[in-house]
């Protein structure tokens, strides 16, 4: 992990890799993130930068790799997936979050974008299946309940090499 992190830094900063931050633009060059539709959210969730630039320290980078590793528990993976999908960082997945989530997964192009009616039906179906307390949003425990019924969930998102 240290080697991968330091390779993202300019040569003159590699000796001090533990005390410097890698810019988001460099993190996004990782092959595992390059094509990930949630790449910007992943950087936002794992970055501890006070400036809001989504840069990562070595510890942030380690956290990210450990969450996406095979050894991470499904509770940890689902907790971070929930945070990544919670686009407005309000602690729930509401209709706007779900719409952004679907758009990330289907692509932003006109040919792949769902119609308003299709989007509405899909969101209604997701909430019907997941919103146990029927408040119109999905909270972390509801999300984890749905994920627990999806054994394939933990196989996705492996960032290890």
Task: Give a brief rundown of this model.
Helices cover 50% and strands 0% of the residues. It is an all-alpha fold.
Question: What would you note in describing this structure?
Answer:
With 161 residues, this protein is an all-alpha fold. 50% of the residues lie in helices and 0% in strands. It contains 9 helices and no strands. The protein has helices spanning 2-7, 24-27, 31-34, 39-46, 58-67, 74-85, 95-106, 116-130, 140-148. The radius of gyration is 17 Å and the shape is elongated.
The helix/strand order is: HHHHHHHHH
Q: How many separate helices?
A: 9
Estimate the strand proportion.
under 5%
Overall number of strands: 0
Distance N terminus to C terminus? Answer: 9 Å
Q: Which segments are poorly predicted (pLDDT under 50) over 5 or more consecutive residues? A: none
Task: Provide the helix percentage.
Answer: 40-55%
Q: Which term fits the overall shape?
A: elongated
The biggest beta sheet is recorded as:
none
Mean pLDDT: 92
Coarse structural class: mainly alpha
| Rg value | 17 Å
């Amino acid at each position: 992990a240290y080697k991968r992190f330091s390779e993202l830094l300019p040569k003159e900063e590699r000796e001090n890799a533990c005390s410097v931050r890698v810019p988001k633009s460099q993190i996004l060059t990782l092959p595992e993130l390059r094509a990930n539709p949630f790449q910007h959210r992943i950087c936002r969730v794992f970055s501890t930068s006070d400036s809001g630039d989504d840069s990562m320290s070595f510890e942030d980078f380690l956290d990210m790799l450990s969450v996406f590793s095979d050894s991470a528990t499904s509770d940890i993976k689902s907790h971070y997936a929930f945070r990544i999908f919670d686009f407005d960082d309000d602690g729930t997945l509401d209709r706007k979050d779900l719409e952004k989530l679907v758009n990330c997964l289907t692509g932003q192009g006109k040919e792949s974008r769902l119609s308003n009616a299709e989007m509405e039906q899909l969101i209604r179906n997701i909430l019907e299946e997941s919103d146990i307390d029927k408040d119109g949003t999905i909270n972390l425990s509801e999300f984890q309940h749905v994920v627990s019924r999806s054994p394939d969930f933990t196989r996705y998102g492996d960032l290890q090499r």
